[in-house]
Design brief:
The chain has nine helices and seven strands; from the N terminus they run βααβαβααβαβααββα. The protein has about 270 residues and is α/β, with parallel strands linked by helices. The structure holds adenosine-5'-diphosphate (ADP) and 6-phosphogluconic acid. Its EC number is 2.7.1.12.
Length: about 270
């Protein structure tokens, strides 16, 4: 399929969608240039692939099968370890939410913890998008879709090479997240992929704290996003309860947040 078309959202009614405002609990729960930069942490190797573990397991089984039922017990143990380790493979974790929730802060820390790449979606906005935001004009679908398609292709490249990757991206609406979901080679429009490897974690912070964080960041000259645009993002944030998105209280310390995300996704 034409890569530029793949993952374009259909115009869909968002039936059943539930809106979460920042701080609300779930019931059940500048760079001036356009050139994209992907920060990589490649100092440590990734865990070996599942097939290698399977191979080791089978070899051990053959070796130990001659020693009564000890071999069978040991084989089960190896399978459990293999299952745990292979869950680190081929996964894209999208840290989502409105401006200031901590996508960059938490994304960098999480990626460091997992020895994987972190992609900050902000670095992939074309200059025209940044100018709009600087001028207090919210982005439109036409502004966001090509940006999301670039991010989808980056995630896809990581996934097909068997890597884990973290993306910090607002992904405020289901139609935007659906574009990113197509990074998963197994994702189908009817959501039938059995083991979807693009996972979303919604970082949640109350409005007052958010405003403080964003205003401080702008005052320090560290970001193009003005606090005045925050409300437009809060209004747009929509999470369908059926999407199975993890929601995390991101008003805590970065380490606590990272620990919770690790426990949720690994
Ligand atoms: N858990 C946290 N505790 C304290 N300050 C935080 C936390 N997360 C982010 N911040 C601060 O809030 C501001 C916005 O964080 P950032 O990671 O840039 O958010 P986002 O990428 O979602 O816009 C930054 O100044 C950052 O240092
Ligand atoms: O979809 C959008 O309207 C933008 O991508 C927006 O969501 C993003 O928030 C800005 O780029 C600010 O960046 P931070 O979210 O990192 O503050």
């Amino acid at each position: 399929m034409d890569a530029s078309k793949r993952g374009r959202p259909e115009a869909k009614a968002n039936g059943g969608a539930k809106k979460f405002k920042p701080g609300e609990r779930k019931e059940s729960e500048e760079k001036e240039d356009i050139a994209p930069k992907v920060r990589r942490e490649e100092s440590l190797p990734h865990p070996p692939s599942g097939s290698l573990y399977l191979h080791i397991s089978l070899t051990l089984l053959l070796t130990l099968s001659s020693i009564d039922h000890f071999g069978e017990i040991f084989f089960q143990l190896i399978l459990k370890v293999s299952d745990h380790l292979t869950r680190y493979e081929r996964m894209a974790v999208v840290l989502m939410g409105v401006s200031g929730v901590g996508k960059s802060t938490i994304g960098e820390l999480l990626a460091k913890t997992l020895n994987c790449s972190f992609i900050d979606a902000d670095n992939f906005h074309p200059q025209s998008n940044k100018e709009k935001m600087k001028n207090r004009i919210p982005l439109s679908d036409e502004d966001r879709i090509p940006w999301l398609e670039v991010l989808r292709d980056l995630l896809n490249a990581s996934l097909v090479s068997g890597k884990i990757v973290i993306l910090g991206c607002s992904a405020l609406q289901k139609k935007y997240r659906d574009i990113l979901r197509y990074a998963d080679p197994n994702f189908k429009s009817d959501y039938s992929c059995e083991k979807c490897v693009v996972k979303f974690v919604l970082l949640d912070v109350g409005v007052e704290l958010l405003l403080n964080r964003v205003a401080k960041r702008v005052a320090e000259g560290n970001h193009f996003m003005p606090a005045e645009l925050l409300q437009s993002q809060i209004d747009l944030l929509e999470v369908d309860v059926s999407e199975g998105i993890h929601k995390v209280d991101a008003s805590r310390s970065p380490q606590d947040i990272v620990d919770e995300i690790k426990a949720l996704i690994l």
